[in-house]
Design brief:
- The termini are far apart.
- By secondary structure, the protein is an all-alpha fold.
- Helices cover 63% and strands 0% of the residues.
- The protein is globular.
- It has nine helices and no strands.
- α2 runs parallel beside α6, α3 crosses α4 and α4 packs antiparallel against α5.
Length: 255
């Protein structure tokens, strides 16, 4: 049994390699967007399925995050449990917050920001997946877990918008900015306390040769908020197009 799990979670289970914007990368993107589109359309046609789909995505997101801590010691992709997976990055923080805003009405006030930042952080990672740039096999544990984690997180956020559980208002986009700044402070706290070069939220060291270390906190805030703003724009563009082109019943939002 030990040998089976070692093989199952190994990153040496194939001679294939995944790289940035290659066929395997686009396959994962296709799976993510295809799953999200399919669940969106099914939920619009069958309203009773909506909560089931949202709950499933929420459970899968937090489930993949938690179980990862048990699997990492069994995978040769890690040297034991990686402290980098602690919730100091925006993506991992979202995994912790998703169950609260999905299942507890007391956290409804922050649901908009959590939904937006979940979509923004997951789409930014999927477009430039740092852990998928090392030439690992496309279906090794480290690749499959990280891609599917971000896929479920992305899908959960989009479903909340499509089903009308979160309705955007440009006057409230400041909530996303406040959320980003809180994450910035939290990540800075993690970087200072652990002080092991984890570079959570990419605010300690630059990941781009054309940006200095000092400017990274500003660049991160600008890029994440800019992505959030773009999500708002896409939301209103689709909503306007839906009202103009689609049947009225498909454009109605229900809570």
């Amino acid at each position: 049994m030990k040998e089976f799990f070692a093989w199952l979670f190994s990153q040496n289970n194939s001679s294939l390699k995944i790289g940035l914007f290659d066929g395997w990368h686009f396959l994962y993107l296709f799976i993510t967007f295809g799953m999200t589109l399919a669940l969106s359309l099914i939920g619009l046609k069958f309203p009773k399925k909506r909560k089931v789909f949202q709950s499933a995505m929420a459970y899968l997101t937090i489930g993949l995050y938690v179980i990862d801590f048990f699997i990492m010691p069994l995978s040769d992709s890690y040297d034991g449990i990686s402290a980098y997976k602690l919730p100091f990055n925006i993506c991992t923080i979202m995994a912790v917050l998703v169950p609260f805003v999905q299942f507890n009405p007391r956290f409804s006030k922050i649901k908009q920001a959590v939904v937006t930042l979940s979509i923004a952080s997951s789409i930014m990672w999927m477009c430039y997946p740092g852990t998928a740039l090392g030439g690992q096999p496309p279906f090794s544990y480290i690749i499959f877990q990280t891609f599917m984690y971000h896929a479920f997180l992305f899908c959960w956020g989009v479903l909340n918008l499509v089903y009308g559980d979160v309705v955007y208002n440009f006057r409230k986009i400041w909530q996303e900015l406040v959320g980003i700044l809180i994450i910035l402070v939290w990540a800075a706290f993690g970087n200072a306390v652990y002080d092991m070069g984890y570079n959570w939220f990419f605010i300690e060291k630059s990941i781009f040769p054309f940006l200095s270390d000092e400017i990274m906190p500003f660049a991160v805030v600008f890029s994440v908020f800019g992505t959030s703003f773009l999500i708002y724009c896409i939301y209103f563009a689709i909503k306007a197009l839906c009202k103009k082109k689609s049947p009225k019943e498909l454009c109605k939002s229900s809570k």
